[in-house]
């Protein structure tokens, strides 16, 4: 599935590419318009999600991982459409105009790539903060593990509240990112899993060793 804002975007770009083919004299003007449309879409997407403008304009209470994933999907789609649009326009442009516009297309491609990277970094940061919050209460949780039925709600042989929280957060995130392209999902989720793997190992390694209940929880 795609975000609905891509429908009018694609239609506008398609119309301009069609005009440039049908009336080659308009190719340069159409190319400028196409670049402007890409720039505006990228800027609006950035301001609404990374800039949290949607909280004011659309009444959202917060920007969730799902919103970030939708923005990432949209920017990815747009960035992959850009080379095709440039190729179509270049066929109609005079060499001089093609050389003038080529740097603008390259600059736009870099902007889209940077936007994608910022969204990915934001997703990673959200999950880092959640892991830090869980690790912050891990010490107090660990003190209950030797009690059999601990204050964290875990019985003997059952996962601790900490383990349940970590698994739930990762599962929720993977669901939110499930509609991304496979390579994007692997890259984002893989980086987050590496952070969780090292963070959890470090947190458990800093705990004061306990008895059998403690060992069952950390193995």
UniProtKB/TrEMBL annotation:
Quote one Gene Ontology molecular function term.
Answer: syntaxin binding
Protein name as catalogued = Vacuolar protein sorting-associated protein 54 C-terminal domain-containing protein
Could you tell me the keywords of this UniProt record? Answer: Coiled coil, Golgi apparatus, Protein transport, Transport
The record's comment on protein family reads: Belongs to the VPS54 family.
Biological-process GO terms, alphabetical: Golgi to vacuole transport; protein transport; retrograde transport, endosome to Golgi
Does this entry carry the keyword Coiled coil? yes
Organism of origin is Chloropicon roscoffensis
Q: Which residues form the signal peptide?
A: none
Kindly list the organism's lineage. Answer: Eukaryota, Viridiplantae, Chlorophyta, Chloropicophyceae, Chloropicales
Cellular compartment(s) = Golgi apparatus, trans-Golgi network
PANTHER family annotated for this entry? Answer: VACUOLAR PROTEIN SORTING 54, VACUOLAR PROTEIN SORTING-ASSOCIATED PROTEIN 54
């Amino acid at each position: 599935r795609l975000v609905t804002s891509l429908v009018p975007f694609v239609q506008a770009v398609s119309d301009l590419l069609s005009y440039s083919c049908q009336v080659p004299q308009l190719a340069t003007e159409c190319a400028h318009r196409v670049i402007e449309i890409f720039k505006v879409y990228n800027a609006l997407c950035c301001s609404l999600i990374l800039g949290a403008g949607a909280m004011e304009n659309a009444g959202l209470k917060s920007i969730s991982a799902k919103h970030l994933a939708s923005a990432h999907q949209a920017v990815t789609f747009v960035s992959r459409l850009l080379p095709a649009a440039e190729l179509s326009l270049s066929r109609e442009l005079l060499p001089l105009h093609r050389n003038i516009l080529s740097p603008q297309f390259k600059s736009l491609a870099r902007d889209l790539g940077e936007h994608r990277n910022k969204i990915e970094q934001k997703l990673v940061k959200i999950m880092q903060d959640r892991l830090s919050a869980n690790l912050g209460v891990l010490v107090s949780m660990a003190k209950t593990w030797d009690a059999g039925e601990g204050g964290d709600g875990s019985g003997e042989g059952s996962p601790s509240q900490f383990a349940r929280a970590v698994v739930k957060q990762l599962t929720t995130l993977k669901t939110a990112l499930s509609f991304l392209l496979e390579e994007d999902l692997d890259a984002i989720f893989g980086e987050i899993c590496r952070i969780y793997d090292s963070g959890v190992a470090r947190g458990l390694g800093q705990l004061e060793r306990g008895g059998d209940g403690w060992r069952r929880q950390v193995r």
